[in-house]
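pasting for ref
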Amino acid sequence: MPTIEKQTTQAARLNFRLPPEIKERIENAALISGVTVTDFAITALAERSEEVLEKQSHRVLSDRDRDIFLAMLEDDSEPNEELKKAVEEYKRRVISR
């Protein structure tokens, strides 16, 4: 596991409790990796948070949904009344904040 570059000053702090068996597993994994528990935890948390954020930023459509989406993009018909109402409601609730 790659380690993070050590910083000379602490910018922020995270405190949390965890079950003893998880703590022991983390300590063993850090020992095997040849890093401190702190470095191991920071690296693991940073990597996992990047995975979650990366996954959130991408949308994967099924073939069916992709086809529907592309067909809607190509459709040049005017919006119906329900869609116009939905846009106005969106503007009222979200954009006007």
